[in-house]
Amino acid sequence: LRGSKSFTAALPGETERNGHGLGYKSVSVGHLEAPPLSPSRLSLGRASSTATSTAAPEQGRPRDYLVLAIFSCFCPVWPINIVGLVFSIMSRNSGQQGDTDGARRLGRMARLLSIVSIVLGTIIIVLYISLSVRGNPSF
User: Where in the cell is it found (predicted)?
Assistant: First the structure.
């Protein structure tokens, strides 16, 4: 039988309670933990946990509806469509930073504001044209 290369050692700071009131952490020889080199190393370690691997598979990058928001800027409801454009850009930035929940939330808001802007803009244009035609009988 080969001997195990792991042992139990009391490490200050990062210990687990083993049920006996003493803090011990099981580590392997040659794999003693060192402080993470950067914050990104810490987040990479969390991404490989079993809790995240059992979740639903990643559905890709969330939509930011930038094209729809740009198209809505041609409608005459400028405060709403500019805010929709800002939400769309914020959604794209959140998606690039890895915040998928925030990117989805901001993307939905950008889509809502863009659709409201397009609908209200279409109503305004139709009313303007119908009132212009009604006001000028020779047209």
Answer: Membrane
Q: What is the pTM of this model?
A: 0.56
pLDDT tens readout for residues 46-77: 444 434 434 443 578 899 999 999 999 999 99
pLDDT of residue 98: 93
Let me know: does 78 contact 63? Beta carbons within 8 Å. Answer: no
Please give the structure tokens belonging to residue 107: 């993307």
**Per-residue pLDDT band at 29 (split at 50, 70, 90):** low
102 touches 94 (CB < 8 A): yes
Which tokens hold the place of 119? 């609908």
Helix (H) / strand (E) element for 50: namely: helix 50-53
| Amino acid symbol at 135 | G
Q: Can you tell me whether residue 107 is helix, strand or coil?
A: helix
